[in-house]
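Input C-alpha cells:
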C-alpha cells in the first residue's frame, strides 16, 4: 500500500470520526455555525479580527454559542451576564485552564498560569503567600515602585526632549519591580541584559497575538514542525529560561534557609522541606516555569498598558491636561505621588481605568475548561470543554459604557465628577483565575503614569487628530502600535 493511499485512508477516518463526534456533541452543546470536517469553523472566522467575528456570531446565536477551532469545540460566553455567571457565580466549575498549545509545549502543565488541579492550587496559594510576605499590597512594595518611578523619570529626562520610542524605557520600570520581588535585584536602564530580556517579552507578545499562532493552536501537531514564528517564540523562551536558570543557580549558592530574601529563596526552602514527598509540586521545573509566568505577566502586560496609555494621552491632549491639573492640585511639585493620593484624584483614576477598558489588552481572556459535566443555562457542557470568556464584550458593553469605541474617562465618573466603579471592569479577568498580580499592576499603573505626567509634557510628532490608536496586531492580545514622542520637562 503506497503512502498516498495510507494518507487518504487516515484522512477519511479522521473526517468520519469528526462527523460522528460532531453529530453527538452538537445535540448537547450550545448552538453555533455548522463546522466543516477537520478545519471546523476556522474558514468562517476572520483570524485578523477574531473579536468582530465572535460579536457577529453572538448576534445570531445569543450569548452562549459553540465554535470549532479545528476539530475541538469551544463554547464562547459573550456579554457580562454570561461571563459573570461562569467566572464568578460558578467559578469553581469554570476554574480549569484550557489548552493553549504554543505555551503548553513550553510549560508542560507547570507554573501558575497554565497549570491545573492540585498543582495549580498549591502553586498559586504558595505564590500569593510569598508575594504578601514580600510586601505585595503593602507600603514596602509601594516604596519600591516609587523609587523605580523616579529612576524612570530620570531616564526619560536623559532623552533631552528628543523624539524617542518609549517601549524599552517604559518596560524597564515594571521589569525591575518584578526583579526585586523574584531576584531581589534591579538593572540599570542601559544594561544590555535587561534590554535583551525586554525585547524577548515584547516580541513574544507580538508573536502570540498573530493569526499564525491561532492556527498553530488549532492544529499544533500538524504545524509544529513546519516553519513559522512559533519557532521564534520557542527560541525566545529558551533564552529567557537561561536567564532564569542563572539567577536560580546564584541563589542556590548563597541560600540561607533562615533568611529568605526573595521569591526564589522561599520556593527553594519549600522544595527542601518537601523533597521526600512524591506528590510535591515544589520542584525545580515548577520553580522555573512559575518565575517565567510571573516575569512575563508582570512585565509585558503593564508595559503594553503604559505604552498604549501614553499614545491615548497624546491623542487626547485635553485629557492629559486635566490629569496634570489634578496632579498639580493634589500632589504639587515638591513631593512624589503616592497611593494615598489616588482617593483624591478621581479623574486620574478614571483615566487609568478607561485606558485599560479601551485597549482591551487580552480580548478573549486565557482559555478555560469546565472541570466537570455541567448544565449551563439550558445547555449541557461536558467536562473538559474549552471555554472562551469574551472580555471585549464586557469591557465594550454599550449599555454600561455609552459609545464604547470612544476613549472617554467619563465612563468611570458620576455626574459630580467622583470616581464610579463598574462591575464590568474586568481587564484582569475575574473569579478563581483572576490575575495574581492585579494589585501590583494597579499600583504600578497609577504611580508610574502620575510620575511621568508630574514631570513631563507629552509632545506628539504629528497632529493629535492624525494619531492612529488601532492595535498593531489583535489576537491573543492587543499589541500597541509603534510610535515616537518627546518627553518635555515641565
Amino acid at each position: 500500500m503506497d503512502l498516498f493511499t495510507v494518507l487518504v485512508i487516515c484522512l477519511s477516518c479522521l473526517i468520519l470520526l469528526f462527523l460522528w463526534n460532531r453529530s453527538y456533541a452538537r445535540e448537547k452543546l450550545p448552538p453555533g455555525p455548522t463546522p466543516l470536517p477537520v478545519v471546523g469553523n476556522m474558514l468562517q472566522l476572520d483570524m485578523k479580527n477574531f473579536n468582530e467575528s465572535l460579536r457577529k456570531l453572538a448576534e445570531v446565536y445569543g450569548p452562549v454559542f459553540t465554535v470549532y477551532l479545528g476539530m475541538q469545540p469551544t463554547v464562547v460566553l459573550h456579554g457580562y451576564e454570561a461571563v459573570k455567571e461562569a467566572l464568578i457565580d460558578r467559578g469553581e466549575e469554570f476554574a480549569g485552564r484550557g489548552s493553549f498549545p504554543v505555551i503548553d509545549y513550553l510549560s508542560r502543565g507547570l507554573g501558575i498560569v497554565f497549570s491545573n488541579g492540585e498543582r495549580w492550587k498549591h502553586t498559586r496559594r504558595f505564590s500569593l503567600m510569598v508575594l504578601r510576605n514580600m510586601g505585595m499590597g503593602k507600603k514596602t512594595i509601594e516604596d519600591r515602585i516609587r523609587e523605580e518611578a523616579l529612576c524612570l523619570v530620570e531616564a526619560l529626562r536623559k532623552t533631552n526632549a528628543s523624539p524617542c520610542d518609549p517601549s524599552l524605557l517604559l518596560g524597564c520600570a515594571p521589569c525591575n519591580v518584578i526583579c526585586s520581588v523574584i531576584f531581589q535585584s534591579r538593572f540599570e536602564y542601559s544594561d544590555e541584559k535587561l534590554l535583551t530580556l525586554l525585547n524577548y517579552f515584547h516580541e513574544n507578545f507580538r508573536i502570540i497575538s498573530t493569526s499564525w499562532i491561532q492556527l498553530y493552536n488549532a492544529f499544533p501537531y500538524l504545524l509544529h514542525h513546519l516553519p513559522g514564528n512559533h519557532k521564534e517564540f520557542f527560541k525566545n523562551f529558551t533564552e529567557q529560561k537561561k536567564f532564569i536558570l542563572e539567577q536560580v543557580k546564584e541563589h542556590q549558592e548563597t541560600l540561607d534557609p533562615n533568611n529568605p530574601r526573595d521569591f526564589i529563596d522561599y520556593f527553594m526552602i519549600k522544595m527542601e522541606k518537601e523533597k521526600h514527598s512524591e506528590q510535591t509540586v515544589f520542584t525545580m521545573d515548577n520553580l522555573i516555569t512559575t518565575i517565567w509566568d510571573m516575569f512575563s505577566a508582570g512585565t509585558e502586560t503593564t508595559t503594553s498598558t503604559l505604552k498604549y496609555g501614553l499614545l491615548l494621552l497624546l491623542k487626547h491632549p485635553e485629557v492629559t491636561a486635566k490629569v496634570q491639573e489634578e496632579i498639580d492640585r493634589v500632589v504639587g511639585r515638591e513631593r512624589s505621588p503616592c497611593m494615598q493620593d489616588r482617593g483624591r484624584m478621581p479623574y486620574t483614576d478614571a483615566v487609568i481605568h478607561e485606558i485599560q477598558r479601551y485597549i482591551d489588552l487580552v480580548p478573549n481572556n486565557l482559555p478555560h475548561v469546565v472541570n466537570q459535566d455541567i448544565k449551563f443555562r439550558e445547555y449541557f457542557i461536558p467536562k473538559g470543554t474549552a471555554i472562551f470568556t469574551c472580555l471585549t464584550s464586557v469591557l465594550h458593553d454599550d449599555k454600561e459604557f455609552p459609545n464604547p469605541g470612544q476613549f472617554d474617562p467619563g465612563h468611570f465618573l458620576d455626574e459630580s465628577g467622583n470616581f464610579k466603579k463598574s462591575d464590568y471592569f474586568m481587564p484582569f479577568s475575574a473569579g478563581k483565575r483572576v490575575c495574581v498580580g492585579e494589585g501590583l499592576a494597579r499600583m504600578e499603573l497609577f504611580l508610574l503614569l502620575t510620575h511621568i505626567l508630574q514631570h513631563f509634557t507629552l509632545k506628539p510628532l504629528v497632529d493629535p487628530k492624525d494619531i492612529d490608536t488601532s492595535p498593531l496586531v489583535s489576537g491573543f492580545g492587543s499589541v500597541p502600535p509603534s510610535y515616537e514622542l518627546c518627553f518635555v520637562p515641565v
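The longest strand covers residues 72-78. DSSP finds 17 helices and eleven strands in the chain.
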